[in-house]
Specification:
It is a single chain. The chain has helices at 3-16, 18-56, 83-92, 127-130, 143-147, 159-162, 208-216, 234-248, 264-307, 309-317, 322-358, 367-393, 397-401, and strands at 60-65, 67-70, 73-78, 81-82, 96-111, 114-123, 135-138, 152-155, 174-177, 180-188, 203-207, 220-221, 223-228, 259-263. The protein has 404 residues and is α+β, with helices and mostly antiparallel strands. A hairpin with a 2-residue loop joins strand 5 (96-111) and strand 6 (114-123). Helix 2 crosses helix 11, helix 9 (264-307) packs across helix 11 (322-358) and helix 9 (264-307) packs parallel to helix 12.
């Protein structure tokens, strides 16, 4: 029997039992659709993390106060990071492109009758280019504004909505931060939370010296953001940073750092690993439906072999070989699985797009996942079709012809 004729017979058998064929394919349809949807969700989440980390700056190091030590024994007071460290890095570091101090705290902010509690960040003019922000409205304060301790404020993209105002119309309006009046001179572009608990779009930027002397009253800063020079490996920039800070803090050779350095790339790698594990878990759970669908196909093919025993006897009597019979039933199982796979791909892709539109989830349907799901459905058809096909091929034609 020719392959084309065998495929035609397989489709004819499916058309003759449409309901049974549809129910048989249901497991494959659900399995393939679920795999594509789950992988699309996982891939979309991973892509969103990569984009957000890239937007924050992958070559940025963040310095935090570390554990203090006395006589080799750790104590609870954390060693301070101050503006002296900031000046030392600007002066002595050779592999750093920019150093930005960040003095941060939550403050009451008032605009007219609106009152919110949000993050107020004292920093420098380099904060915007370092973190790849753009100015949606207005401008960023300058180094001159910082030196003059001007009371200027630049709002995160979500702050105008929190204050019930129009971003464009808020430029040059006055807000009160801890009761001190500040003029709004700019509104930043949106960044998103980047998977962290804080949202940079909800913060307000003010000049670092203004923050020190008018709001917080301290030289201590919460952290330093450090950008490694272009073309310099992040690891080398970290070594240069530690060299300067260890000297500034008078740390002896061999002693532990009294500060912490965190790398955005490490954070990205951790998030990617967690997302990949999550995606693999979801895809594995969804793939169980494919196995169940394969078992259903094997079951229905065994029933088909029993129903068509006399047909098999007639074919063998007319000269059909064991290979011809086996190929016929294998192709039928394969057609069922591949047809279910195509329908599952369409439904899975549609479900991913629907989730993106309605639930605003990040999804990414990759051609690789479609190919893998389709190929896996074919493998399922071959694997679970072999036993019924071999059973059909092994029937004795005499006994098959006498079967009632």
């Amino acid at each position: 029997m020719l392959v084309g004729e065998t495929v035609a017979v397989a489709f004819q058998s499916i058309r003759a039992n449409k309901l049974r064929a549809g129910l048989t394919m249901l497991g494959i349809i659900i399995g393939v659709g679920a795999v594509i949807t789950m992988v699309a969700l996982g891939s979309g989440a991973q892509k969103a993390i990569e984009d957000r980390i890239a937007a924050l700056g992958a070559n940025i190091l963040t310095v935090f106060p570390g554990q203090g030590f006395r006589g080799g024994i750790a104590f609870n007071d954390r060693t301070a990071i101050t503006t002296d460290d900031y000046e030392a890095l600007r002066r002595d570091a050779h592999l750093l492109k920019a150093v930005v101090p960040e003095l941060q705290g939550n403050q009451q902010v008032q605009l007219g009758s609106q009152n919110i509690n949000t993050t107020v960040l004292g920093t420098t003019a380099q904060y915007v280019p370092m973190h790849n922000y753009t100015m949606t409205y207005g401008r960023m304060f300058t180094d001159g504004d910082d030196q003059a301790r001007q009371r200027y404020a630049v709002l995160g993209s979500s702050v105008p909505e929190m204050l019930g105002g129009n971003p464009a119309a808020m430029i040059h309006q006055t807000i009160l931060i801890r009761g001190v009046p500040f003029e709004i001179i700019g509104v930043l572009s949106s960044k998103g939370s980047a998977g962290s608990f804080s949202n940079p779009d909800e913060q307000i930027l003010i000049p670092i010296q203004t923050a020190q002397f008018r709001i917080y009253g301290t030289k201590r800063i919460r952290s330093l953001s450090v950008q490694v020079a272009d073309g310099v490996p992040v690891e080398q920039g970290m070594v240069d940073l530690e060299r300067v800070l260890r000297k500034e803090h008078k740390i002896r050779p061999g002693a532990d750092n009294d500060f912490q350095v965190r790398n955005q790339q490490d954070f990205l790698a951790t998030q990617q690993q967690a997302t990949q594990v999550f995606t693999s878990l979801l895809a594995s759970i969804a793939a169980v439906s494919l196995i169940v669908g394969g078992i259903g196909i094997m079951n229905i093919m065994l029933v088909s072999v029993t129903e068509r025993t006399r047909e098999i006897g007639v074919r063998k009597a007319l000269g059909a070989t064991r290979l011809n019979i086996m190929l016929q039933f294998l192709i039928e199982a394969l057609v069922l699985c591949l047809t279910g796979g195509v329908i599952g791909i369409i439904l899975g892709t549609g479900a991913a797009v629907l989730l993106s539109k309605l639930a605003h989830w990040n999804v990414l349907v990759s051609p690789t996942s479609i190919v893998i799901a389709f190929a896996f459905s074919a493998i399922i058809g071959l694997f679970f079709g072999i036993w019924p096909a071999r059973r059909a091929a092994s029937l004795d034609p005499i006994i098959a012809l006498r079967y009632e």
